[in-house]
Amino acid sequence: MEGLVHSRFNPVHATRHRSFNSVVTSVQPLEASGLGHFDNTLPSKDILQLWRSADAVCFDVDSTVCLDEGIDELAEFCGAGKAVAEWTARAMGGSVPFEEALAARLSLFKPSLLQVQEFLETRPPKISPGINELVKNLKAKNTNVYLISGGFRHMINPVASILGIPPENIFANQLLFGSSGEFVGFDVNEPTSRSGGKATAVQEIRKVHGYKALVMIGDGATDLEARKPGGADLFICYAGVQLREAVAVGADWLVFNFADLINSLE
Asked: Where does the record place the catalytic residues (predicted)?
């Protein structure tokens, strides 16, 4: 497409000029009280062994590593928050194909490059309590950490920078802008832009690196899909921000705070 450009703005580089401090809010994780119908909140010995022996852990970003849904926050910043949030709920619940929901949400507000830059300048990432410590503990065990998201690289790069995750360990979508910075779409060649994309990304990671044990952690239907032959061996549902019952029921292990995962590494 003539005049089509990827954004040249790199929020990771922006940290050299200003503090890109994350916001660890006072919001506490959802608690498991009153949710006794879930029988997967206590891991079996086999699940614990898989978790402790993992040589790679892949995290979803929105409502897992971060306390919010990035596209909803960007849409709210651009004046279309409510309509986009409704689409997000449908997409995360698995009721509509992800690529359809992504295109529909972006069409509602069509963010320009300038708007994205302003958003990043004024809205630091809201990091979930405990995630920084968990990532540090995993890295101390020489476990490779990845971010796999249906969100956008522009918004995930700062999160990765805070957590010390290299750019090559990010699988996410790319916004596309015209020569004047106008929104023209998103890169449909990214696996995470469509349903089943996270599973494809996880399978690619495993194939390239030959990991023996790989874990996926997230809150949505697209995260659960990553547990399949050649993909993730274990799916941990993190429900500290959003509890999606169908996803929670299908998980190998359901947790409501990252402290449980940190303590279980020992």
From this structure: 60, 62
Q: Which of 46, 62, 252, 260 is catalytic?
A: 62
Phi, psi of 261 (to 5 degrees): -70, -40
The span from the CA of 130 to the CA of 201, in Å, is 25
Task: Please tell me the pTM assigned to this model.
Answer: 0.85
Helices in the chain by DSSP H: which ranges?
A: 11-14, 45-53, 70-77, 81-92, 98-109, 113-122, 131-140, 153-163, 197-209, 221-224, 245-250, 258-264
Could you confirm whether 60 is annotated as catalytic? yes
Under the banding of pLDDT at 50, 70 and 90, the label for residue 33 is: very low
Active-site residue identified among 39, 60, 223, 252: 60
How far from each other are the two terminal CA atoms of the chain, in whole angstroms?
52
